[in-house]
Each structure stands twice: as C-alpha cells, then as structure tokens.
Amino acid sequence: MAKRAEHKKKKLKIHETESETIALLISKTLWQNFKNIPFGKIFSKIWPYVILIIVIILASWMRFWGLSDRLHFDLDEAYQIQTIVDIYKIHTWPLQGPPASVGSVIYHGAFFYYLYLIPTLISKGNPIALAAFTILLSLASIPLLYLALKDQFSRLGALTATIIYSLATVVILYSRWSWNPNSIPFFFTLALFSLVKIKNNSWWLVIFAFCLGAISQLHVGNSFFTGIFVLMTPFLVFSVRKIHVWLAALAALILPWAPTLIFESSHRFSLFSALFASSDLGEKSTLSLRIIHGWNYFLQMFAEIIHLPKIFLPISLLCLLGAIVFRTYWRGYSHRLAPIFLLLSTIAIFLACTVFDGKFFLHFSEPLFVLLPIAAGITIGLALENKSTALSGLFILTIILINNWHYYLDLIVNGEKMYKIENHICSQAQKRRLKKIKIVVNGQANPEYLRYVCETYYEVKLGQKPVLDVTTDFKNKLRFQ
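Above: the chain's sequence. Below: its structure in token form.
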C-alpha cells in the first residue's frame, strides 16, 4: 500500500511539473508576442484622434451651453427666419438675400434662405433649433479641418490648428445663432477637405465648386470666391480630366447663385455696379494707405480670434507661406491643391480689404475664422515638433487657450441673455390678456425680433396701444413701466 501511495505521489509531481512547464511556455510565448506588438506605432496613430474627440466634446459643450437663454435673436435674425417661413407658408421664393450694411442697394445672396429651409420646416421656425443647426455645421467643420491638414502639413500642426479653431471664442460666438455668414467656416473647411480628396475621386471637384459658390453667396464680402475657382482651374486640370465632371462642377458653382442671377438679369445687374460704386476704386485713396488698412484688418481679426500679440501675425503668415511653398514645390499636383487654395484665399481676402477700405467688420470675411487658426497652428506645430522648442510651443498654445477662455466667460457666460429676456417680455404682455399691445424696448417701438417671438409663441400681436414700456440691457437690467 505504501509503495502504491508513493508511486501515485511521483505521478502527481510529474504531472504538476509538466503543467508548470506548459504554462511557462505559454506565458513566454504570449509575452514574446506582446512585446512584438508595435504599441508605439499604434499609439502614434491613435493619440491625435483621441485628442480630436476630446476637443469636439469640449467644443460642443462650449457652443451649446446656455443657448436657450443667451441666443442672439435680433432684427436680422427675425427678418431672415420670417422670410424662410414664408417660403413654405405662402410660397414666396426670394431672389434677394438680406440687405448688406455696405450701400443701400447691395444685398447678400438668397442661398442662406434655401440652406436653412429644411431645418426651419422641421422646427417650425424655432430660432433655437436653427441656431443648433448652425452649431452642428460648426462642429462638423472640426474633423474636416484636421483631416484636410494632417496630410498636407504635419500632424502636430494640423492638430494645433484644429484645437485653436475649435476653442476660439469668436468662432464659438458666431456659431451660436443663425445668421447668413455664420456657416461660411463649414463650407470653407469642406472645400479644403474636398481638394485633399480629389486625388482619390474626381467628383470631389463638384463639392469644391459648390462650397465656393455657397461662400460667395452667404456674404457679399466673399463674392470673389467664385473667382478663386477660376484661378484654381489650371491646377485642377492635372487632377480632373473628365469633361462631364467639369460640367457638373460648373453647375454646382452656379447653383447657389441661381436666385441672384435670376434677379440681376431683370435689373441690369445692379448689384455688381453697386459693389464697384461702394468700393474705393473711384476715390483718391493711395495704394499704400489701402494696404495699411487691409493689414490693420488682418491684425484686428488675429487679435480677436487668436488672442495673441499682433506681432505673431506676420510670424504666423510667414510660417504658413513657407509651409505652402515647401509643399507646393516638393509634392505632386494632387498634394498642391489645398496649399494653393489657402494661399489664394488669403491673398484674395487681403485684396478685398484694400478695395473696400473701412467698410468691413468682424464678420466681413469669415474664412479668416479658419485661415488664421491654420496659420497660428502651423507655426506652433513647427515648435512642438522640435524637442528644443516644444515647451515654448506648448506655452504659446496654453496662452491662446487661457486668453480665449477668459474671453468666453466675459462674452458668453456673463454676456447678454437676449432670448430669455425677449420671452419674458412677451410672457408679461400675454398676462395682460390683450389682443394687441404696443411694446417699446429701449425707445424702439415693436421691434421685429419681439414681434416674431410674441406672435409665434405667445399669441400676442403687436399694435399701437396700450403701451408696455420696457428698459433693459439684456443682461440683468429689466424694468417695466
């Protein structure tokens, strides 16, 4: 019995030893395979997208935060929404867009009305829903910008430019309400992205042409973008050789202009003559003075968007120019298209600023909302790529984000609560249970933005009496008399 027990023990030990050996071999094999996994390559490919997702989440929060109270809804917005509502209610098809602040007969394109027609129809003309649509376009432009830049320039430069663009307070502010130029950054980034994709599919030329037509229609100050398509043609023909694609692209370029062209054909093209008359071409203004004023506009936009000292503007533009020249010279035609488009857009905007001297505002050319972050991002990206200058590049990026955050707190968090106060005024008028009432806000009788809100959501029609006199700063001050 004792011998049998010892024999069994020996067998068990042998089995245990064999099991340990097998387990050890398996663990060694797994460890060897684990070590062979290229984690460095995987991480280097994944980390930009992880950061991009975080940026999109943060940008979404900053754009949607407090929208229902702080929505900017003024005269222009009320007029535009009512015009869109009239399209499907009384079947009026506008051929002219909103009037421009430059000249009495100058107007923006009607493309904006048709772009927002479906969101207006779905939301029944809800201003918050239309602002949300503008925000969605703005958010869609963020990944488009990164994907367009990462193969044209460095990944760090592309990611830095995308971060600056996504979190710039001015870009966020202008994406928070439905105004005709506020969707321009989306079409600009989509145009840039389409140029990168043309090498894979020539039909992206149609998208590119449509985007330029849309940009030129959304604000009269960008009407020259149709000319950029013409200037790009000698470079595009090397990538797109199919005639039917070019015909489709030409139709796509004209499509946003269709209402304007129909109207102008019966009015002797008065818009174009008015644009020439409102420019400085007929005035005795020296070329050097125009150049200085155009440069000052770029400086103003750089300070408002990037929030760095103005001396960084020439540095950023020179770095961008150097990157464009390098990419254009060393790479094939398909890789030259996006850099050339950036260069032509910058030059064209600057020339427009010199022609319309003193007649432009912050929104005069919203493509700069994208171009200037690209210039700053490429510059900082060059610093981040070098170990000896990485800390300085990270410091500059941090300064930009901190300055923009303080501007966000001042401009949006502590800014006007316009839509909330408008609704409060209309609710007070509703409580009086009168069929008609005259509302005077800061001395202005029956403002159109208030008419739209009161008549649409509170069934209060504005008339001549009795009078509800209101004094407000649209922040904290609200007094009824």
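The mean pLDDT is 83.
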